[in-house]
Every structure is written in C-alpha cells, then in structure tokens.
Specification:
The structure holds three protein chains of three kinds. Chain A is α/β, with parallel strands linked by helices. Chain A has helices spanning about 10-25, 40-55, 110-120, 165; strands at about 5-10, 35-40, 65, 95-105, 125-135, 145-150, 160, 170-175. In chain B, the strands form two sheets. In chain B, strands 7-6-5-8-9 form a five-stranded parallel sheet, with helices on one face. In chain B, α2 (about 60-70) packs across α10 (about 280-300) and α3 crosses α4 (about 115-125). Classes of the chains: A alpha/beta, B alpha/beta, C alpha/beta.
Chain lengths: ~180, ~300, ~450
C-alpha cells in the first residue's frame, strides 16, 4: 500500500483547533453555546474544543456527544447494525446555539443525522458546524461554519484522522483507498 | 464487534452467544437514554412494519413490545387473541401467511405453546422474536433481567444467582439459566422437589430443595407461584409453600439483590416487606423492558434487507 | 383357517423368475445366491444361479447384486379405516406396506367407530378383500369403544376373524378389567396385545421425561409409566396363564421387566419400532412434531437396551406402529400435535442404515425380526422355501434414497425419517404370491460408494 501523505501534523492540529475555538467565540459573542461531538473522533475533538472555548469564555460551556447510529439513512442497506456508542446530551437544547463537531465533513449525511437527533431533544436557537477537515463531495446542502482545512479529494482517496485519545497520535493523512474502512461522513 | 452471534431470529437464548448478549445489552443502554428524552423516538426502523401476535394475555409484555417498536419509528400491528378458537395451529399458520401481505420486518409472537415461535419462523421471511412460548423460553425477559443485573453489579462473571420457585412451569427460569450461565454467572435453582424438573442440571445449574444456603447468593430471583399448582397437588398448600420458600426480609441477607419477573403474588412467593425493600430490582426490571426490546428489534432488523438490495 | 383371517384383493399368482438374488432366510439357514422360480404365486424352485431357464409366460427379474429376504410382517399398523380415511385407507396403507417390503400387516382397532363389534370387523374384512394390496389381519378392541369399562364380545370377534385384541392407543387401566380379558382369552384364543402406559404418570406428557424435556419446558412421560404397567400386566398374565404381547417398548426398564417375565415362564412377547431403535429424545430439541409419538423417543441408554433386547430375542419382533396423521394435525405447536409417525416405507432402510451398517445388529437378525411378528399372532411365517406361497422382498442394499423426496405411498407424510438418506431400497415385494410392489424409477439412482 502506498504511504499516506500527512496533511496535518501534531502541531498543525493544535493550532487549527485553537483557531477554530477563537472563531467560535467571535461568532457567538453572547457565549450561549454548547459543544456537541459526533462519535467517535468528533467526540474527542469536541472535548478539546470544549476546553479551549470554555477557557476563552471563562465559563464552563456545556458539552455533549451524540451517536448517530439510530439516525443514519443507510440502515436499510447495511450488512449489519453499526456499533452504538453512548449519546450524552444532558443540557437543555432550547434557545441555545449548538456547535456540532466532527472530524471529517464529506457527503454531509452524518451531520444531517446529528441535526435530526439534536431536534429530537428540543428546539435549538441555532446549529453551527465545526469540522477539522472538509474533503468536498457534498450530497446534501450542508455547509460548515468552521473548517480546519479544506482538502480536495477524489472519492477513491481516504482521509484518516488520528487522535491521541484513540490512536495514540494527532495526525491527519490522505491516502489511497484500501486499509480499514470508515463509514462515509 | 465482529464475532458476536445474534439472530436471524430470537427464539431462544441459544440464538445468542455471549458477545451477542453483551452487544444487545450495550445497545439497550443507548435506548435507555433515548427513553429518557422528551422525544423518545429514533428513526432507526422507519418504514418497517412490526407485527405483534399475542395469543396469551399479558399487558406487561405486549405493551412493552409495542412501545419498543413505536419508539424505533416502526409501523406496528398488534393482534391479540386469548380465545381458544385461535389456539389451533392451523389458524396460526393461516394468520402468519395472511400477514405476509404487510411484508413485516419482524413478527413478535407470544403463545401458550412451546415451539410456536419456531413454527412461525418456518412460515415467514420476517425476523421472529419469541415473546414467550409455553413453558419453553422467554428470551427478552432474560435479557432485560441480565441488563438490570449488569447495571447493578457491573459484571455477571462469577455472580451467584439463585432462582427460587416453580422452575418446572417457568419459561423465564429456563431462559434465565441459559443467559446467566452464558454471561459467566453461577446459578442454583431451588424449590419444592415436585417443581424442579428432573434433569435441569443439564442446563448447567445446581438444584436443591432447601433454602439453607440462600445466604451465599448475590442475587435472589423469585418466580411466581400460581394457585393452580396447589390444585394439581404440586404443593399441598400455598401456606406450606410460603412457609418453606417464601422470600421475606428475614430470609434475605442485607446486600442481596431481589428480582421477580412479575406480576408478584404478594404474600405467596414474596412478602410485602421484601417487595418494598431497597434491595429489590423489580422496578428496574420493568423499566428495562422497553429499552432491551428496542435493542433486540434494532439488532435483528437493521441490515436484513441487504439480500434484497444485492438481488 | 389362516385364509379367513387375512384379507386381500384377489389377484392372479405371479409367474416370475428372480435371477441371482442373494437369498437370506435365517430360519431356513439360507444365505447365498439363488435363482427363485415362482409359478402361480408359489415358490416352485430354488436353484443355483443361472441354472433355471426363463419361464415361457413369465417375467425375468435380474436381481444380480441384490438381496432377497422373506417378506416382512408388521403386527402393528394403523390403517385409519373406518372413519379416518383422510389420513390413510386400506389401499394407501397397504401400498405403503408393500413399498416397505411388508407382505402382511395387522391393523389396530382404534378407528371410528372402534372395531369392537363383529359386524364392524366383518365389514372391514370385506373391504380389505376388495382394496388391500397385501393381506391385512385385524385386532379387535378389548373394551367397548376403548373406554376401558366393558369387555367386547371377544368370542364373537374371534369367530369373525380377529387375530387378537388390543386397546392400543390406550392402556387397559383397570387391572380387574384386564384380568377378565385374560380369563376370557381361554375361551376365544387370540393374542392380547397391550399398550403400556400409566395415565396417572404420563398425564399430559408429550415426550420423554429427562434432560431434554427439562430444557424444553415440555411435560415428560417417565419410563416408569411404561415399565410398571408391563410388570403389573406380566404378573396378571402369569397368574391367569394367559398369552400377552407388549407393544412398542421404549424404555430400558421395560426390556428388563419383559426379560424377568420370560424368565419366570410367563407367556409374554414384545415388539419394538424402528424409530425407537434408531432415534432418541435429542431430536425433539428441534420441536419438530414429526418426533412426537407415544411412547416417546427416549435416551440413548434406552435405545441401546432395546437393540440388545432385540438381538438376544427378549424382544421378539419389529413392528412399525405406522401412525399416519394429516398435515393440519402435525403442523401445529408440539404440544398440540397428534402423536405418531408413519413407518412402513422406511422400516428396513432405517434399521439397515442406522443399525446394520454401523455394526450394531446383524442383517440376519434384522431380517428375522422383521417377520417374527407373524408367529406371535399365529400367522404362517414367510419362508423362501419351495412350495411356500411367494412372500418375499428384493432389496438393493447398496442403493440409497432420500426419504420423502418423491413423496410417499402413504396418504400421510408425517415420517420421522423425512429428508434422511437411507440405504437399502426395496425393489420388489411379493405378498401372498402376487407382486404387490415394484419400484418405478424416474431417474436411475447412483449406487452408493
């Protein structure tokens, strides 16, 4: 297998997340935000953004995680049920700005599912989207509010986001198809 | 989690290996969270039809299954019949074949006859879930019991569980012995000798007619004692049964957990002070029913139309 | 005398030369290749292979590589006539018998109405003379309507041709009632055949009481239900010096009880079915109602005791207890299904495949026991000997068949061996001198390797 190209290394990732945190705070001057990570890697990134934005706002911003397994639009054609992780959304959604966090934005279907799930909890004032990587090829009219890096890709390529909490290192690589499959984001 | 075996039907606990049971319990945790939301629904089974065939009266189980399917956004058809006119198997077969017109994704069946779920599975391409067949099995009850216990104990490995009462007539006992053993627990069944089936040890449990060592148990699972048993002379009287086998506060050691599949015959197999004690998990069991049944439906139904897509 | 007790549609006797069959007739001590010449339905000659010229007006059947046995006799079948012909009738039942190599059967009286009256028996005999493909004998019931309360007119029934008496399907619960029947037997003769079960112990049981019934949550029928009744009835038979035959033994304890009775000199005999010799309660785990019968399939220990009993002769003969039931009576939950399996068409194949091939029983023993039922009911035993009527079966031991693949000769399909591949295909059956069955193959089956 060809080696994958590193598009973001450890330092890049740290700087990028700091920048996104600043952008979130600038765009939401009232600070009434909540950070919501999409399992799995979006959740880890959300934790970091939560820490960064809470520090900037000098207050503890609510943090939650969603598993979108039950909201996927491809359940009918999957070979088996996706593994479910825990959804934790313990704060009231009414009237808040929810910032959804995911690692890679691709077709937009995952984000659509996450939005559906948020609305099952209540009616947020606003929903914004922060992603580490936007790789293009949208199939739904979903646009991110905050982007770490835009990486144009072909559909045969694979974007691999590694986070220290799950993979032992912080790194984003772009490689050929093959290797472990990840569900389309 | 590759390597877990679930389905294609849930007729017996034998249709699940340990990894399969754990996966269902894990998924049930997520559905328990869904049940805590204001909008207690997820769209996972939208567009699918679930048929409930209940040939035996049961508000508890039937409402639990109905709610589970509805909370998954499935379309639900419930057919209830407690009349003896539909007890004949021919009606069962005709009913199932007629229902195929609705193209159900799942059929949940509860019947007073062992093997009914198995038969239905042979007549339909839907996933079949056994909601209780005669005295044979009641797998979702065992799963919700395991879920409840796992939440309380963390792990069931080496847990010492006693099942007390009329094991002979209990499908809940059979499914539970299998499920608890599969999850690593040790099981002892205890009751009057006339109500412990000969050869039950072959399921991997111990059997004793005496409550003497009950104090060793971590969990005491009490079965319902029906008054009919006295008429059939399995026990000389309910009074004697209560005297020897009733679980009350003095027989329960502090720290022991108490369970019962419901409904409870107060004063017969369980005393009021036991039912109302803080050691009882009975309320948790009831609450667990919907989440566990949602998990079963989800795990069995997601992915099944793959064959249709490929074809 | 015998001609009045077995009834069959009259047909001209066969003219046939069976060439080069390996003839195995243990009673005649014959176990070698022979040509068999049949003229006018009688065995005219047995000769060294190739030595007989073909008959001018007859057929030559090349049986090279095949075996010929004395025709089988089944002393326990349910032909469901009168009253339940939707399950089986005399024609279809005897067609099944012939397809299985049986040259005579004895039908049980638990029909609708019960055969408890001379006129019913007479009319049944008449029907058999018009419809039966192989000779059929009849047992009459011991009690009226099988109710266990009043004796039938046993002497009159014997005069009408009853070969004996049974309340099969039910036990004779009252020892007093059975005793009277045993006493009456001195007047009317015949064999009293007993279905042994204590209803107080068998209750609503649907399978053997053991680890499998504990697992399945089905009510079990304990072995002692059968063995205690055998012990009781053997004692009564001894006391009254009567002649009793115990039907469809299923338990090791029953074999022991039968052996003790024989050792005590009591005139008792016993039978066992092919399904009890080859299947155990383990198959019931599937909850397939084809495995629901009474008495039930029991454990492997019981099965081996039955095999040993058959081998030593404690159990005298094989009987299928052929019990046809319609689909709607079997395609229901196990507890509700009718009890019984068909057995005529698979008896030899099942025994040969599951017992002879693995070496549990000799072929000669199986062949002998498959016709030993004749003598027990005072019928002539089929023999492959000159001047005897032709009662024989030609079998290809090497050929196999999938049970039920081409349907059944029986009207019913409830066969416990359905779907199994068995060795030992019946090619031709001669019953009372006529060809009662001849295998018609659409496709030639490949010989087994």
């Amino acid at each position: 297998m060809e080696a994958a190209t590193v598009v973001l290394d450890h330092d890049d990732m740290r700087r990028t997340l700091v920048r996104i945190a600043h952008e979130i705070v600038e765009k939401n001057p009232d600070g009434a935000i909540a950070v919501l990570g999409i399992h799995r890697r979006g959740a880890f990134l959300a934790q970091r953004l939560h820490a960064l934005t809470s520090e900037l706002l000098d207050t503890s911003v609510p943090l939650g995680f969603v598993d979108i397994s039950f909201y996927r639009d491809d359940l009918a054609i999957r070979a088996n049920a996706p593994i479910v992780h825990a959804t934790q959304l313990d704060f009231p959604v009414e009237g808040r700005t929810i910032v959804i966090v995911d690692d890679v934005l691709y077709t937009g279907r995952t984000v659509r599912a996450a939005i559906d799930e948020v609305f099952d909890y209540g009616r947020p004032a606003r929903v914004q989207l922060a992603v580490l990587i936007d790789r293009g090829h949208r199939e739904l009219p979903i646009r991110p509010d905050y982007v770490g890096k835009n990486i144009p890709t072909s559909t045969e390529e694979r974007v691999n986001v590694h986070v220290k909490e799950a993979d032992g290192r912080d790194e984003v690589t772009l490689g050929p198809a093959g290797g472990p499959r990840r569900a389309a984001a | 989690m590759t390597g877990s075996r679930i389905g294609p039907h849930l007729i017996s606990i034998d249709d699940l290996d340990r990894a399969g049971i754990e996966r269902i319990l894990d998924t049930a945790e997520s559905f328990a969270e869904v049940s805590g939301r204001d909008i207690k629904k997820v769209p996972a089974l939208r567009g699918k039809t679930v048929v409930n065939l209940f040939y035996e009266a049961s508000t508890r189980t039937s409402s639990s299954f109905e709610l589970a399917a509805k909370r998954l956004s499935a379309d639900v058809v419930s057919i209830r019949s407690t009349g003896s006119s539909v007890d004949k198997g021919e009606s069962l077969k005709d009913t199932v074949q007629t229902l195929s017109a609705y193209d159900p994704a799942a059929i949940v069946i509860r019947s007073p006859h062992a093997g009914a779920a198995q038969l239905v599975a042979g007549w339909t391409s839907a996933a079949v879930i056994n909601a209780g067949d005669g005295k044979h099995e009641h797998p979702t009850q065992a799963l919700l019991d395991a879920f409840t216990l796992r939440r309380r104990l963390g792990s069931l490995d080496d847990a010492n569980i006693w099942i007390v009462g009329d094991v002979l007539h209990s499908r809940v006992a059979r499914s539970n012995i299998l499920a608890l053993r599969r999850m690593g627990a040790r099981v002892t069944v205890c009751g009057p000798p006339t109500l412990i089936p000969r050869g039950i040890e072959a399921l991997g449990c111990e059997a004793t007619p005496s409550l003497e060592r009950l104090h060793e148990a971590d969990v005491v699972y009490v079965l319902r004692m029906q008054s009919e048993r006295m008429h059939e002379s399995y026990v000389p009287s309910l009074r004697e049964y209560a005297e020897r086998y009733q679980i009350n506060a003095s027989r329960l050691r502090p720290g022991q957990l108490l369970m019962h599949p419901g409904p409870v015959n107060r004063g017969v197999e369980l005393s009021a002070d036991a039912i109302d004690s803080p050691q009882t998990l009975i309320g948790d069991q009831v609450k667990a029913g919907v989440a566990v049944r949602m998990a079963v439906l989800y795990e069995l139904l997601v992915g099944t139309p793959l064959l249709a897509v490929v074809a | 005398m015998t001609e009045q007790k077995l009834h069959r549609r009259a047909r001209p006797g066969a003219e046939l030369l069976i060439r080069s069959a390996h003839v195995l007739d243990p009673r005649a001590e014959l176990d070698e290749p022979r040509d068999i010449l049949i003229r006018g339905g009688r065995i005219a000659e047995l000769a060294a292979t190739g030595s007989l010229p073909p008959p001018d007006d007859g057929e030559v059947f090349d049986a090279t590589g095949k075996h010929a046995f004395p025709g089988f006799v089944d002393p326990h079948v349910h032909l469901r006539t009168p009253g339940q012909e939707y399950k089986e009738d005399l024609e279809s039942g005897t067609a099944a018998a012939a397809a299985g190599g049986f040259c005579a059967v004895i039908a049980m009286p638990n029909t609708d109405p019960v055969v408890d009256d001379g006129s019913i028996l007479g009319s049944l005999a008449g029907r058999a003379s018009r419809e039966a493909r192989v000779p059929v004998g009849f047992l009459a019931s011991i009690t009226r309507g099988l109710a266990g309360e009043e004796l039938t007119e046993m002497a009159e029934l014997a005069d009408e041709g009853a070969l004996g008496f049974t309340d099969d399907g039910r036990p004779v619960v009252s020892a007093g009632m059975l005793r009277k029947a045993l006493q009456y037997q001195r007047l009317c003769g015949g064999v009293i055949a007993l279905h042994e079960e204590d209803p107080a112990l068998s209750r609503e049981g649907v399978m053997h009481e053991g680890a499998v019934s504990a697992r399945l949550g089905l009510t079990g029928i304990p072995s002692v239900s059968e063995s205690t009744m055998i012990a009781r009835d053997a004692a009564l038979a001894g006391y009254e010096e009567a002649r009793v035959h115990f039907q469809h033994l299923s338990a090791a304890e029953s074999v022991e009880a039968l052996e003790r009775a024989k050792q005590a000199g009591i005139r008792v005999t016993g039978e066992v079915t092919p399904h009890h010799l080859t299947l155990t309660d383990d198959v019931v785990r599937t909850l397939d109602s084809r495995f629901k019968m009474n008495p039930p399939l029991r454990t492997d220990t019981d099965r081996r005791a039955l095999i040993a009993g058959l081998r030593t002769g404690v159990i005298d003969c094989i009987a299928t207890d052929h019990a046809p039931h319609a689909r709607h009576e079997k395609e229901v939950p196990f507890e509700q299904a009718a009890m019984g399996t068909t057995g005529l068409e698979t008896a030899f194949g099942a025994l040969f495949t599951e017992l002879v091939l693995p070496g549990a029983l000799d072929l000669a023993v199986v062949v002998e026991r498959l016709s030993a039922g004749a003598e027990i009911f005072a019928l002539p035993t089929p023999r492959i000997v000159p001047d005897e009527p032709a009662n024989l079966v030609v079998v290809d031991l090497d050929a196999c068949f999938e049970v039920g693949a081409h349907g059944y000769a029986s009207r019913s399909q409830n066969c416990a061996f359905h779907g199994r591949t068995l060795h030992g295909r019946v090619l031709m059956t001669l019953a009372a001198g006529t060809v009662a069955f001849r295998e018609r193959m659409l496709v030639e089956a490949a010989p087994a390797r």
